[in-house]
Amino acid sequence: MTGSLSIAGLGPGDAALVTPEVSAALACATDVLGYAPYVARVPAREGVRLHPSDNRMELQRAGEALRLASEGRDVVMVSSGDPGVFAMAAAVFEALESAPQWREVSIRVLPGITAMLAAAARAGAPLGHDFCAISLSDNLKPWDLIELRLLAAAGAGFVIALYNPISKARPWQLGRAFECLAAILPGTTPVIFGRAAGRPDERIDVHLLAEVDAQKADMATCIIIGSPETRIIRRGDKPSLVYTPRSASGSKA
Amino acid sequence: MTGSLSIAGLGPGDAALVTPEVSAALACATDVLGYAPYVARVPAREGVRLHPSDNRMELQRAGEALRLASEGRDVVMVSSGDPGVFAMAAAVFEALESAPQWREVSIRVLPGITAMLAAAARAGAPLGHDFCAISLSDNLKPWDLIELRLLAAAGAGFVIALYNPISKARPWQLGRAFECLAAILPGTTPVIFGRAAGRPDERIDVHLLAEVDAQKADMATCIIIGSPETRIIRRGDKPSLVYTPRSASGSKA
């Protein structure tokens, strides 16, 4: 019985951004589990069982993956982006911690291109200096803590990437986040809406914090809010480039 | 004259972590520029000119890449990890901003697996909730700003990834960073030293903040300091797993 569980990141959606390590794991998997739209991205092949599941089933899906691996199957759990960034790896380890019978299962995490890296690349280099990533979902933490983190990060000069910015069940949070940030950041701070980076329906928009409209984002949008150092290079009819210089104010260089 | 410049991330070192997008760009490049050890990773091929350069030549290298592209060459600038995270993309845009004659050059940024994602994957899922990335180099920003950011991030509950933690010219900064963090984080906070993740000389060590020794890190180490929520799963003779749960304290879930 030598089953295994690989928790793999498919990147933002473009097959050209899937690492060879992940492709190799999928090529010899007996079972692939994950949220249905991500499982649908896995290349079809005889001899692999696909187990698509619903979005809200993380812990149940994690337990199922551990059970199959413990029975000797070679299981790949797929996530969008990187599995360790607001995705399935933490859910698998939560399940593992509550189920000691699976501690012997061989587990690997295979990294992927997470949404903020893909969106940043399309926009320029907005993450060129110190930055943070915050999930705006208040399903798993209180909203007050999210505001505290937004203010701490902006106050200390971090560029901020927002994951899970908005959904039907969470319609006001992104607008409120922009209000918080506008109280301490210049209105000219660049705000990038990076939607579906690397996919055919990709859309990258650059706004200024003073005039940004939260309702133009959706669940598939990764939002990057610059620091006071972040700059926009205008290039006529080419898309503008947004970048954060390598040095920060008060620099000795 | 239709030259181009692709600023490409080679990932942490393992060829299995180089995206197909980057491999394709390298396969049709006429010129490859970068820090010599990164250029050395590029597969040899007839018809490509390699331009390795020294570590401290970022702006000069960036200008050279823009010049070659403006002359019609298909140039790839290689970085380790992701080119937009403490790497060459910001340097290229700094050079571009100061040289309007190159604004028409076609430029793409090709994302890569940045060091913290590779190190995190090898250790478990320490970046499973809100996190930040800080360069510990005080060559390009004052040390006081680094301390301010460390304290702001730890105080607000972010997991912290440290890039450029230590070097011969910067021997004391990492130890001082640990001292700052130990003043506000529990001594039991996990600290991961992820060295050369994905390479043959990979080494992943998990320490506790109260007993961590900065001198065990080197330039190739990415350091991840947990939040008070971060947990360690002990697994007998298998390596321990470190993860940060998806929910944060005060959670409503």
What is the tally of beta strands of chain A?
13
Bin the helical content of chain A.
25-40%
Strand order of the largest sheet of chain A: 3-2-4-1-5
Number of helices of chain A: 7
* Strand residues, percent of chain A: 25-35%
The gross shape of chain A turns out to be: globular
List the chains of the largest interface with their residue counts. Answer: A-B, 83 and 83 residues
Low-confidence parts of chain A, pLDDT < 50 over ≥5 residues? none
Measure the end-to-end span of chain A.
58 Å
What is the mean predicted local confidence, pLDDT of chain A? 94
State the order of secondary-structure elements of chain A, H for helix, E for strand.
EHEHEHEHEHEEHEHEEEEE
Query: What's the Cα radius of gyration of chain A?
Result: 20 Å
Structural class of chain A: alpha/beta
Characterize the largest beta sheet of chain A: strand count, sense, and whether it forms a barrel. 5 strands, parallel
